[in-house]
Amino acid sequence: MAEPLPVTWVVEADLDRDGAYETPLTSYINAAGSGIEVARELDEDGRYKVSRVTFDLANQYGDLTPEYVNHPNYAGSSPFANGKMRAGSPVRITATHNAIGYTLWTGYTAEWVTTGGRGEPTGGRCRLSCTDLAGLLREALPVDVTPSTSRDTDGAIAAILAATGLSAGDYSLDDGLQDLPLHYVAQQNPLDAVNQAVDSEMGGRWWINAAGQLRFRSRQGWLGTTPDDTWGDGTSIKPEALGYELVNRHLISSASVQANVFVSEDPDEVVMAFSRNELNGNSVLIAAGETRDFGRIPYGKAVIAAITPVAMTDYRGNSAAGGGGSDATNSLTVTFADFGASCDLQVKNTSGVGVYLTWFQVRGTPYSVVLDRPVFTAAKTTPGEKLKPGGTVNLPYPDDRSARAKDYAWHLLHQGRHEYPRITLDFGWDANAIIAAMLGVELGARILFADRLAGSSGQWGTYVSDWWYVVAIRHRLHPTTVKRTSVELVPSYLFRNLDRIAYDLFDRADQSGLGTSTSGDTWASSAINVVSGVAAPQSAARNIATITI
Fold this sequence. Notes:
Number of strands: 35
Structural class: mainly beta
Number of helices: 6
Distance between the termini: 54 Å
Oligomer: single chain
Shape: flat
Largest sheet: 8 strands, mixed
């Protein structure tokens, strides 16, 4: 077999954060001799796991000792001095093969740890740990997103990311299929908020792609009949090693789905009021000329169209703490910023004497979660099953006004009715076709993979032939040994068209014809009856005599 074309890989950083990756790190990694491993993956629940990459960098000349200057073996100070070894600087890993460039990972510096022995730092190392955008979102400040009754899933994600300060270039979102009857975020971690929005898509997924963007794929995006690539039998993209995993935690015989139901309350309702309003002289004193900053004040619920506070109606000032002195409301200037579930409040006293803020409230149209929100359960026990495994899913934003939550329970039951395989394929970069496939593969890729042919020595692998989705990618890059990639796949049948799903328990009274199914769809055939909880043919001559559904 001909030698494959060489692959050059580069690790580079944008330490001055000017948008250009001008600081190469590859030579330091090669000198350390340890190589790197890059992993991005979705867990068994479909949640993206924060990706972290760690490099060992050689520090034989003191380059990575930022406060060391005039090293005897290096003219001048460290090229990483002057505050360049900071957290949050962009880093990317790229590779070139057959004159084609590929981006394998994009993230940000998180930790620099330089070590060395007594005396000169010759032979010392620096361990650089990096994280991707998901890691930054996990550590970001809580965000607020004002309530809306007109967002769909991608609109909710975009609003969350915009609240963090990210721009449109930081994400790539499918058009979400789920309209959210109400969506808001109140002082919540942005990554948790994104997960809640994607959960409400009921079949959508998100991940950080190789370019470092947050990628959202709608539930419809997982459907299709065109593969992104074909591997295995009949191709030159064959793995060296294969693994086939079946585990009981993938099995469920009962799936419950609960959807939050939001209702609007009376307009012009008080959604926040100071507890110090004219109570026993405990009102807030604002000194002459003082601006009192009350910070972020929560409402305790989502509020649509909060009303800017009106003098005398919503706030009052007085010369006495109990409100029994002279009115001083005109001396108060209120700065109010509404965030839908909370507000920022500042009050300035423009007079030359102290004024008590004896009354303050905010009005608006609040939304509440009802207590009687339903739980939809789909169950079917496996014969001989000792105990019934199951799970419960809470959908934060879709309500019960459509059948989607109920349909989703049946979708989950279908998905977990039998243990599904999760297969791992390990490839060595020893052929051009394999190298190109591994450098170009992305999470969510649809792969047609078959492994049903015996090897030259009669050995067998997974003996599968199906459509799959890529849920994990791990690249192992080393300066001297063969580079490798392992890929994890799950069957494409785990994803179904939720908007066209139909199901039937045949648990209605016996009847001629099948009539209306449990999902509300009407059967077209009249040649099958409902008999004692099953579907049975009217005439055995027209069907297999023993079949029941």
